[in-house]
Amino acid sequence: MLMRTDPFRELDRLAQQLTGAVTPGTWSRPSPMPMDAYRSGDEYVIVFDLPGVSPDAIDLDIERNVLTVKAERRPAALGEGVEMQVAERPLGVFSRQLFLGDTLDAERIGASYENGVLTLKIPVAAQAKPRKIAIAEGESGSRTVAGETVGDSKQIDA
Question: Domain range for residue 73?
Fold first, then answer.
């Protein structure tokens, strides 16, 4: 299971309301690193929108089941004599942390980056996948279930 917490986002929202930067009922500026996460079969897929970020400016780290994604959007190199008129795109270093559950295989995370979209694929750990348990037939009609022999008797001891 994938768990998401971002205590600083809530703190930022409260600070904006207290300072009057955002009035209740209005929208604040969207996150500069929006993400989607979904499960597809035996893996979780996490997609981050990072337009304008070069692949070498993206850093992925994992420590104790905490996945940290950092990306830096650098200012565009403007030619000489060019004067910026409007600059609304956020610049700087952006970071998100995801807390991965024990049922995910953090050792086999795959990452790809195409057209400004970072895609992470995290497989479900083998021990977390559902599996069938075979029942072997023993001699004299008894069965072996999880290492114990069960006979034909229907008697249950209380």
Answer: 32-146
